[in-house]
Structures are given as C-alpha cells and as structure tokens.
Design a protein that fits this description.
Layout: E1 17-22, E2 29-39, E3 42-53, H1 56-68, H2 74-78, H3 82-86, H4 97-112
Antiparallel strand pairs: 1-2, 2-3
The structure holds FE2/S2 (inorganic) cluster.
FE2/S2 (inorganic) cluster is lined by residues 23, 25-26, 28, 54-55, 57-58, 98-99, 102.
C-alpha cells in the first residue's frame, strides 16, 4: 500500500454496518462502513470504507484494514487486533499504537454495535464524520467588576 494513496477512503452509501471510534490519546476520530455479501451461505465482508480525522498512521492502518477484512466473516474480522491490522506497516512506535487501536475500535463498533471507547462521538449516527462535530453553543460569561 502506498501511504500517499489510501485505499477505500470515503463514506459508503447502502452500508450494512457503520462504526465510529475516538481516541482519548489525541482526540482523533475514525468511522468505518462495511458491506456484507453471501459467500455460499456464509456472511462475509464484501467491502469496507473509512473516513478519518486522524493522523497518517491511522489512515494507513485503516486503508490496510479495509483491504485485510475483505472476504472475512464478522467473527474473523472481530478477532483481528490493532497490531494485526497494522502489521504490514511494521512495528509501530509506542506513541502510534493507539492509532491502530482507533481503527480496531471503529471496526469492532461497526461489527458489534458496541459503544466505542473511551471517547464516544457526540452523534454516532450522523451520516458523515464531519456531521459528528456539532458547532458548540456560544457561552457568554459576564464578569462583574
Ligand atoms: Fe492519534 Fe494517530 S496520533 S490516531
């Protein structure tokens, strides 16, 4: 995979599953869409896409992961750890391990519907990752002098 040319980038219309995860380490977020197909009576992952407000490592791991899980059953994909998903990149430095865990979290959230941990997005059912970030209400504090 060319890190400058991530695969499967973008939201997927008609996805069967969507999962989002946020990292408490850096505040980055990643969302993954999954489409299943029938493979001789087995439900397998046909394709997956992702969007990320994350670093290049998270994008690279998500790109790899969306290719790696094609043809796997949900159970097989759920068994993949962040380190397995990032293995083609080689060992990650300690400060980047959470980037692969962010991808793992979005994948697991998509496949199980479990709440992402530990920093859930404010609107996990929003249609796009951008929509998850709602504008904050302005708070005006009056100071008494
Ligand atoms: Fe946080 Fe990579 S630095 S996801």
């Amino acid at each position: 995979m060319n890190p400058d040319d991530p695969q499967n980038l973008g939201e997927m219309s008609g996805a069967d599953a969507v999962g989002t995860a946020g990292s408490s380490d850096c505040g980055d977020m990643l969302r993954m869409w999954i489409k299943f197909r029938d493979d001789g009576g087995r439900k397998v992952i046909d394709k997956a896409t992702f969007q990320s407000f994350g670093c290049q490592t998270a994008i690279a791991v998500a790109s790899i992961a969306t290719e790696m899980i094609k043809g796997k059953t949900p159970e097989e994909a759920l068994a993949l750890s962040g380190s397995e998903l990032s293995a083609p990149l080689g060992p990650l430095p300690p400060m980047k391990i959470h980037c692969a865990q962010l991808v793992e979290g979005a994948l697991k959230n998509a496949l199980t519907g479990a709440a992402p941990e530990p920093t859930a997005p404010s609107a996990p059912s929003a249609p796009t990752l951008v929509d998850s970030f709602q504008p904050q209400k302005k708070v005006i504090i009056k100071l008494h002098t």
